[in-house]
Amino acid sequence: MNIEFTVATALATLLVLAVISVFLVLAYRRTQAEEIRKNLVKQAKKLGLAAPEDLETKVLQRRVREAKKQQKHEKHLKTA
Q1: How far apart are CA 62 and CA 44, in angstroms?
Q2: What is the mean pLDDT of residues 73-80?
Q3: Which of 15, 26, 36, 38 has the maximum number of C-beta atoms within 10 A of its C-beta?
Q4: Do 45 and 51 form a contact (C-beta atoms < 8 A)?
Q5: Residues 25, 42: Cα–Cα separation, whole Å
Q6: CA 71 to CA 62: how far, in whole Å?
Q7: CB-based contacts of 57: which residues, under 8 Å, 6+ apart?
Q8: What is the C-alpha separation between 80 and 75, in angstroms, rounded?
Q9: Quick one: 40 exposed, middle or buried, by C-beta within 10 A (0-12, 13-18, 19+)?
Q10: Under 8 Å CB-to-CB from 48, ≥6 apart: which residues?
């Protein structure tokens, strides 16, 4: 009976730790996504791009990347 109680306690502890870990990972991912979005909006404004709220983060990321490439290309043309 003692070993069964120990095994049951260990399994319950592992289950609780797994649930807590999943919750913390989801909370971290949500916070990280918000920070990434905030930084992208900041970069978009710096580059003179529109960043509406309904625009997906991946689309905004692509537009910021393209604007940076364009800006770098224009700078290269001016120096050449």
Answers
A1: 11
A2: 79
A3: 36
A4: yes
A5: 26
A6: 14
A7: 33, 36, 37, 40
A8: 9
A9: buried
A10: 67
**Residue of 14, 12, 34 whose CA lies nearest to 22:** 14
Q: How far is CA 61 from the centre of its chain?
A: 12
| Structure confidence at residue 54 (pLDDT) | 86
The neighbour count for residue 44, using CB atoms within 10 Å, is 19
Q: In the predicted model, what is the mean pLDDT of the chain?
A: 91
- Nearest residue to 40 (alpha-carbon basis) of 25, 27, 56: 56
Residue type, 77: L
Contact in structure between 40 and 23 (CB atoms under 8 Å): no
Model pLDDT, residue 5: 93
Answer whether 51's CB lies under 8 Å from 44's CB.
yes
